[in-house]
């Protein structure tokens, strides 16, 4: 078998080496470091489960877990359906479809530094959003200071910036559906909503399930906007689990505790991936 597939193995060898070095080796070292007091100067000291005791004894961990679940829920409610709706609407357009695709994707190419500066200005108490609210007769909202609004403000910003990439994936799936199905449905008198409900959604439901799993995994690891915009504030309102890991590792320099937090996250996400794989298997058996 090795001789038969020698050149194939040779071509994938560089990618396999990079995959091992930059993915699996750090995961393994993370498991190992979670049992050590890591000191890159004096050397590592084995401490057993002390790092895990520190994790379960830290009140901020529970706050971070709640904030992460809240963040994931907001992203699911407000962010997950936006690219699907845009993809369906664009697929129904008869004219200017290419222009709308480009326009919807443009926010995705904005550099993060520019993005955060732009939305800090938009959310400012004297910024354009509050100016619009006051002109309509509403009170000003302290988007970046009020705990009730801070996480939702970040989710809205990220949805605006990132929905374009998901929209293109869904749009490709929608446009791959045979046009004959839609034409037959129109002949039978089906309206736009009927075509979407009985043709579009059933045809892309596997993709929706896959994208849902990927979004849950990615949002569970979210920390960039929370760190750059508010550093976990106000009063830990945007302190996510991944941000807490970053703070333990790079602010407190407690690499062992950060590794223990990472291991726990890895186990939860691995379980989620296994669940998604089993759901796909069951769906394949039914199909």
From TrEMBL:
Belongs to the binding-protein-dependent transport system permease family. The chain crosses the membrane at residues 7-27, 69-90, 102-122, 159-177, 255-277. Coiled coil: none annotated. The keyword Endoplasmic reticulum does not apply. It comes from the Bacteria. CDD domains: TM_PBP2. It comes from Paenibacillus terreus. Residues 65-276 form the ABC transmembrane type-1 domain. It is found in: Cell membrane. This is Carbohydrate ABC transporter permease. PANTHER family: ABC TRANSPORTER PERMEASE PROTEIN, DIACETYLCHITOBIOSE UPTAKE SYSTEM PERMEASE PROTEIN NGCF. Signal peptide: none annotated. The keyword Transmembrane helix applies. Keywords: Cell membrane, Membrane, Transmembrane, Transmembrane helix, Transport. It is a multi-pass membrane protein. Pfam families: BPD_transp_1.
